[in-house]
Amino acid sequence: MHKPLEGIRIVEWGIFHAGPGGPAILCDMGAEVIKIEQPVLGDPVRGVSEFKNVDFNFGKGSNIFFEGANRGKKSITIDLSQDEGRDIAYNLVKECDVFFTNIRPVTVKKMKMGYETLSKINPRLIYASVTGFGSRGPDANCGGFDFQGQGKAGLMFNIGEPNMDPMLAQFGVADQATAIMASYQIVIALLMRERLGISQEVEVSLLSTVSYLMYFNNLTALLKGVEVPRHERVSADPLRNYYKCKDDRWIILTDSPNSDHWEVICDILGHSDMAENARFDNREKRMQNSRELVAVFDKAFKTKARDAWLRLFTKKNIIVCAVNTTMDVINDPQMTANDYIVDYDHPELGQIRIPGFPIRFSNAEVNNNIVGPQLGEHTESVLKEIGGYSDEDIEGFKKKKLL
Questions:
Q1: pLDDT (tens digit per residue) in 62-81
Q2: Which of 28, 178, 275, 310 is deepest in the core (most CB within 10 A)?
Q3: Does residue 210 sit in the same domain as residue 238?
Q4: Are 28 and 367 in contact (CB under 8 A)?
C-alpha cells in the first residue's frame, strides 16, 4: 500500500518544534526528510532534559521533545557558515522538492539560504518557512516559542474564567498547532506545483496559527467590537456546561438550542418538577436564572459517579463526554480503537505506546514512529546517494570541518 507522500524529498534546516514538527508529520506520510544540523552541537532541542520536573530523557542521550519533532528523519551535519558548506547544501537542494526552515529571517539572509537564492538553484523548489510573528511588520525578526504564540495571539486570555490571570495551555499546544499548519502549507504548495506547475515560497507563523485557532473570537471582535467573554461556569448555560460528579471526576454536556432536551435532562437528574417551572421553560429564561440552575445541577451531579451519569445521558442520546486528564486520554478505549494511540516496538525501549496519526486513509498507510536520528547519523550516506560525493570528497569535507 502506498504512503501519501512517498517520493517527496524535503531538506530541513530547523530547530526546536514549531518548525521541525511540520516535516515530521510529512515524514509520517512517507516523505524523505533530510535534517541539516550544526556540527557538534546539532539542534538545540537535543539538550532539553526536563520541563517542570518532568524527565524528558529518552534512550541514548536523546529526549522526548527531540524524538517527537524529528521522528523518521535523516540527520546530516553541515557548517552553513562556510561557503563550501553552503555549496554542499545547495547541491542537495537541487535534488529535493521542498526546502524548509524556521531559522530567523535575518540569519537565513546572512547564511544565503533564502528563497531567492535557492529557487535559482532549483526552479521547482517549494520553499517553506515558519516564523514567530510573520515575515513583515515590526516583529518580523523577533524570535518566539510556544508561550509567545499563545500570548501574542490572545489565547491566554481565553482560557480560564473571568478575572483570572492569563493562563497557559500546556504543553507545546501552539508549537504543535503551528507544526500542523506548516505541514499543511507544504502539501498545498506541492499540490499547486503538480496541478499548475507553480513553485513558490510559503510561510506560516506562531502568530498566524494561534490567531487562526481564535478565528471566531477575532471575527466577533472585528464585526461586533467586543471580546468573547471568558467562560464562567456558574453563570453559563446549564445545558452547555461541565460538572463534578460524586467520584470527583468531571462530565461535560452540550445540548444544542435546536434540540432542546430540557425535560429529559431534568428527568435524568431527578428534578422533573423543574421542567414545568415557568421560570425555566425556555432557553432565554434558563440563561437569566443560570446561577440558580447550575447550583441545583452541581448538587445533582454529586449524587452519582461520572460513568453512571455518562450511561444515563448517552442512553437518552444527549451529547455528553468525560472531561479527561492526559492519563485518562491515553487509556481511553476510543483512542486505541481508532489508532489515535498505537503500539510501537522501539529499538531501545521495547514495546511502548505512542500517538498515532490523526487521519485515517482507506487506501494508504502512514508511519507511526517515534525514533529520531543520532546527530549526523546519515551524513555520509546522504552525501553519497543524493549529493553524488565520493569517499574522498567526504574525507576532504571533514578535514575542513564542514561536516
A1: 899 999 999 999 999 999 99
A2: 178
A3: no
A4: yes
Task: Calculate ∠ Cα 68-70-75, nearest 5°.
Answer: 155
3-class SS at 342? strand
Parallel, antiparallel, or unpaired for β 9-13 and 32-37?
parallel
This prediction's pTM: 0.95
We report the CATH number of the domain holding residue 85 as 3.40.50.10540
Assess if residue 372 is contained within a domain.
yes
**Structure letter (DSSP) for residue 134:** -
> What CA–CA distance (Å, rounded) separates 384 from 376?
14
In 3D, which of 379, 384, 381 has the Cα closest to residue 401? 379
CA dist., res. 298 & res. 242, Å (int): 9
Instruction: Specify whether the CB–CB gap between 161 and 231 falls below 8 A.
Output: yes
Domain identity same for 129 and 173: yes
Measured CA to CA in angstroms, residue 288 lies from 254, 283, 299, 359 at distances of 18, 9, 20, 42
Which is nearest to 40 in space by CA: 82, 92, 79?
79
Whether 60 shows a pLDDT value over 80: the answer reads no
Side-chain-facing half-sphere of 240: CA atoms under 13 Å:
14
Beta bridge partners of 259: none
State phi, psi for 58 to the nearest 5 degrees.
-150, 100
Cell numbers for 211 = 490567531
Summarised one tens digit per residue, pLDDT across range 287-333 is 999 999 999 999 999 999 999 999 999 999 999 999 999 999 999 99
**50 and 198 share one domain:** yes
Between CA 75 and CA 91 the distance in angstroms is 16
Whole-angstrom distance, CA of residue 397 vs CA of residue 376: 14
Query: Domain range spanning residue 211?
Result: 9-215+359-399
The answer to whether the bond into 171 is cis (omega within 30° of 0) is: yes
Secondary structure letter of residue 306 according to DSSP: H
Beta pairing partners, 341: 355
